[in-house]
Design goal:
The chain is 31% helix and 28% strand. By secondary structure, it is α+β, with helices and mostly antiparallel strands. It has an 8-stranded antiparallel beta sheet, sandwiched between helices. A 4-stranded parallel beta sheet has the order 3-2-1-4, sandwiched between helices. Mean pLDDT is 91; it is low at 426-439.
Length: 439
């Protein structure tokens, strides 16, 4: 009997859970979970040990590569942005297919990414790096206002702010610098604010899910988005996106050019695109599976993208065509308040699960959880469903988010808020500024 292949998955918080990895790869290979020393990875380690082998990162890349070689690893994967460069270095040391280190840098460093897109003539969004407080004046002079400030390397809309004439620019830059994660170069980037179309029905941006191969990129789906919740937080997505044939072709052409400019030749990617009056524009390119996209793909089309990624990483045949779901499949997240608070309780979940069009509801936050607040996207739950068309999806969500409510304790007292008040279906959405998760 042929021995099963071994596949290294460099794991941390990201697009899929440990369980998703185990389910997607169970018929593909034995998994070696490669874990950093982060709080999330430490918490996940006992589950990883039950579902596969575990190798803790030592901090010595050469030693880690030798350890994986000794285990007979034949492929490397990650679904986590913070682990992308580590996975690229390991794969390069082992001579295994993955993003090469230079491509991984362009996929995780927004300054390097904007430069590469600009030099290739793909996109020319005005941008300027910021290393410290003294850089803000030059950045504003270069980019103009209004603009968006974000970390050069980050995820989940962490410390991402809109800057315009109504705010103290120096103060806002100082706040973002204090919150930004460490980086080897500039910690922040100031970017031109992309103005979205006002005639779109839902969010004015989409994402494109693709698989790059030696023959080129196969675009699996265009994902529709719900309007952003202030300041830049994503409350959900759905298949298919409500875009016409001509616009879809323009979106896919731009995606192909962006992936080629960044040197992406293998693996799954998640490209976020703004729908502007002048046509589609690149928000950002991510070199991994999009958040919650695998659940959407499995449910809507019966295709496990973790399985697909695993097969490709091992050099197996990965023939795939664009995914075409029947009906409209959606995911919606209630987002935590931006003010620090404690979650006291959830009401209406059972009633929501009985609604037509709703297939399920799962809580991520639990009563007595302390929620830190801030502008990073923090999902309290996920609500998913299937409807015959987009109109039915809207009706299903509006009804569900009116029934579902959350009770919080804030510094000034207790309040109950309906999910609709915390989402794009009731909150004031930012439908005309550049969105997406700047992960």
């Amino acid at each position: 009997m042929k021995q099963r292949s071994r596949l290294a998955v460099v794991y941390d918080r990201g697009a899929v859970s440990v369980g998703d990895v185990a389910v997607g790869l169970r018929d593909v290979a034995d998994v070696v979970f490669v874990l950093p020393g982060t709080a999330h990875a430490i918490k996940a380690r006992p589950v990883c040990e039950q579902l596969g082998s575990v190798l803790g990162l030592s901090g010595d890349p050469a030693a880690d590569a030798r350890a994986l070689a000794g285990l007979g690893v034949e492929g490397v994967l990650t679904f986590s942005d913070p682990m992308l460069r580590i996975a690229a270095d390991l794969a390069a040391s082992l001579g295994l297919p993955f993003h090469d280190p230079a491509t991984a840098l362009r996929l995780t460093d927004k300054v390097a990414q904007r430069r590469a897109l600009r030099e290739a003539g793909v996109e020319n969004v005005r941008s300027h790096p910021i290393s410290g407080r003294d850089d803000w004046a030059a950045a504003v002079a270069s980019v103009g206002l209004p603009a968006v400030i974000k970390p050069t390397w980050g995820e989940g809309s962490r410390c991402t702010y809109l800057i315009d004439e109504s705010v103290g620019v120096a103060e806002m830059v100082g706040r973002a610098l204090a919150e930004a994660p460490p980086a080897t170069g500039p910690r922040l980037i100031l970017e031109e604010m992309l103005t979205g179309r006002t005639d779109v029905r839902y969010g004015d941006y989409v994402s494109v899910e693709s698989l790059s191969t030696a023959e080129g990129a196969v675009h699996l789906a265009i994902t529709g988005k719900f309007p952003l919740v202030a300041p830049f937080r994503e409350p959900g997505q759905f298949w298919p996106a409500p875009v016409g044939t001509d616009e879809a072709e323009a979106i896919l052409r731009l995606t192909t050019r962006a992936l080629e400019a960044l040197g992406v030749v293998t693996g799954l990617s998640h490209v976020e695109i703004k729908l502007t009056p002048d046509g589609p524009r690149i928000i950002e390119v991510n070199g991994r599976l999009g958040g919650h996209i695998n659940e959407l793909s499995r449910r809507a089309c019966g295709v496990d993208l973790v399985t697909l990624a695993g097969l490709q990483a091992l050099g197996a045949e990965t023939t795939v065509a664009p995914l075409r779901p029947s009906g409209v499949h959606y995911q919606h997240h209630t987002l935590a308040p931006v003010q620090p608070c404690r979650l006291l309780g959830i009401d209406g979940a059972a009633a929501v699960r009985r609604l037509p069009g709703v297939l399920g509801h799962r809580q991520f936050a639990r009563p007595d959880d302390d929620l830190p607040g801030g502008v990073m996207t923090q999902e309290l739950d996920i609500l998913w469903g299937e409807c015959p068309d987009h109109d039915a999806m809207s009706r299903s969500l509006e009804q569900a988010l009116t029934l579902l409510s959350y009770r919080f304790r804030f510094a000034d007292g207790e309040r109950s808020l309906k999910a609709a008040e915390l989402s794009a279906f009731g909150a004031t959405p930012l439908t005309n500024i550049n969105g997406g998760n700047p992960r």
